[in-house]
Amino acid sequence: MLDAAETLAREVKRRWQREEEQRRVHDPFPLPLCWQPAPAQLVDYAANVQRLPPGATPQLDLSGDMGSIAEVYQRIRSGRLVILGRAGSGKSIMLIRLVLDSLAAFTLPERVPMIFNLGSWDATAITLRDWLIGQLLRDHPHLARRAPGGPTLAAALVDADLILPILDGFDEIADGLRREALEAFNATSLPLVLTSRRDEYAEAVRGAGAPLNWAAGIELVDLTLDDLAAYLPRTARQAGRDDTVAVWDPVLKLLQATTCPASVNLTRVLSTPLMVVLARTMYSETPDRDPAELLDITRFPSAKSVEKHLLAGFVPTVYRPSVPDREAGGFRQRNWNPHHAERWLGYLAHQLVRHGQDRRDLAWWQIGDSLRRSTRIGTATLVSALCIAVSAWMTGLVAGQVNPEQILVEGAMMGLSAGLAFGAVYAAITAFGGTFQPTHVRLRLRRRHSVIARPPIQTFTVRFAVVLLGGFVMGVGSACATALVRARYWETPLASLEVIRATLINMLVFGLIFGLAAGLVFGLLAALEVPVDVSFVATPVSLLSANRATVSQQILILAPVLALTIAFGGRLVVDLLEGGVLGELRWDWPDAFLIGAAGGLGGALSYMFCFTAWGQWVILTRVWLPLTGRLPWNTVAFLEGAYERGVLRQTGAVYQFRHVRFQQHLSHSYCERRRRSRRTPVHSEG
Predict the structure, then answer these.
(1) Is 216 helix (H, G, I), strand (E, B) or coil?
(2) Residue 201 and residue 77 in one domain
(3) Whole-prediction pTM value?
(4) Is 117 within 8 Å of 181 (Cβ atoms)?
(5) Same structural domain for residues 422 and 526?
(6) In what order do the strands lie in the sheet with 216-220?
(7) Cα(453)–Cα(527) distance, rounded to whole angstroms?
(8) Key word Transmembrane helix present in the record (predicted)?
């Protein structure tokens, strides 16, 4: 257990060091983040915070700056701290510094500080403990290994109080769920750090009737003009710039000397680190831009208009054609068209807004869910039909069937029937809220003794029961296809009682053959799965690559084993069912191997594309969305490029937009463009 905590601490430290470098926090130096004590009505009594007995005099010193945030936190005996601040005030950056400073002197059995984004938590649907475990498993797949005694390492670490939850974005929880979330926190004594915008947290406190139990609180204050004067001039370092004429000096002097409306507006805007970083990107790092335009009161009559300008200008600036190509994350960074990039990013941001909640996690396996359910069901039906049809055509040609027309018709009928069956299963899964999550396992024929996993019998039973239905519907589809082919070439009337009886018998027999074979093969395959190596680091690209490798291995095993199991298992099922009510049944070996080959290959391909997270990524995100112009063809390279440019950030296995305000701006801009395009009349020429 302690070894797992130590390994996790090293991984977390490495991850957030990289993220801090990616955000250029220390270039040229960190912006000064300071705070003041939070309002008294939003924090607990100091004696409660320090867990003192009655009559004791509390001593609680919360003074400090970003460089001493870990030291300040250590002074809080309860281990509970609320960090308040308005949007863009630097709360997330402070959390990263808290994690890194805490891990700099980390020794067991201290808690491992872990940052979790709260926007995805619904306190009415899942407990805090279970949600934390789920987030750990998503971002650190090796924690799916079993600890001595049964639970996963993720659950064992949480239960052993070896995780310090640092919960970012309390204000991003849906409006109606914040009070329940605060009450859930108050029902535990778990040490934690919580960030939120002040108004949203105050509203939740009023709704719950009390602030967070045993929690101290600080509130970030705005940057001052002195902070801007020290920081902004040192960010303008383009080659060839005349150092005697600093680009920011005239603007800063005017801000310090006058209180005209334009100066007041710009001073207010540049009081948060987010807006300072956006202004730096647009003006310090672009030779042909002059920040003096921000003081144009006609163009920017309000602080809101200045903010909108900075938000709108960020993407065109970082995607300007002068950005050189370089290797980034294994992908060659390319010059994407700024207009297209903004539209694609807007689409992604818009898809994160659902049910009145701005979700933060942009997961590659969920991008396809942005399509309507009917579209996804239709795509799955079409793809599975093609997989079965192509497999039937290939096996028919290899088997040397002499009638090409019959091969085409039989394959098409089998594909259509099986496609409709698979589409029905897919529709049932999605209708009940089922999603296709990325796998966090790999295949291994021999297990190491150090790997403690779920008992193989339990694993086999669960997978067998789940897959049995899918195999059965594929068998039903094959029986229907057989009836249609016989009606076409043997001229047997479909409406006759004899044909109907034979078709129903075939449905039952084929359903059992395919269902039992699929359940058996998938169950045995599940018994070979073990958690990923402890050295595996879950980033979006690495998780995608690991899923592609795992699915490829599964298909190489599934297709031949499933084909042979159908062929030989069919013989066994027919022998057991023959006679009695069903009468005489036939399962000739040539037909058995032909059906087994078509079913094995087609079933494996249909499973790969329609019922795995990687397959859904391929057919929806890599094909359908680019076909409709909503995403680029090379989506992986685009997302990695956005990360390298600072538009996105990585949090474990998912991306996030660099700030929720930026995400909201892109979403609103995307919606506005769609509305304008719908209102624009189309004129014919000539």
Answers:
(1) strand
(2) yes
(3) 0.84
(4) no
(5) yes
(6) 35-37, 216-220, 80-84, 192-196, 163-168, 112-117
(7) 10
(8) yes
